[in-house]
Model the fold of this input.
Amino acid sequence: MEGVNPEILRDICIMKMPFGKYEGTVLADLPVSYLEWFQRQGMPKGKLGMQLATIYEIKINGLMELLIPIRMSLKNR
Done:
């Protein structure tokens, strides 16, 4: 995903869903079915919506390996 801000990818690996069925789940760990539901219903406004849209695109395009080095660096802290 060319042009994606690394800060956004890092945030997706840290931030937890603040509400709903998957409240407390790290955004990167949300199931595709939940992200697809948001895609159909409309993503939330603001930063959270952008983050959910980004992880949705990552997952549907099979790009989860982009997050591996970020998650490893977070784990080693």
Q: What stands out?
A: The CA atoms of residues 52 and 67 lie 14 Å apart. The mean pLDDT is 93.
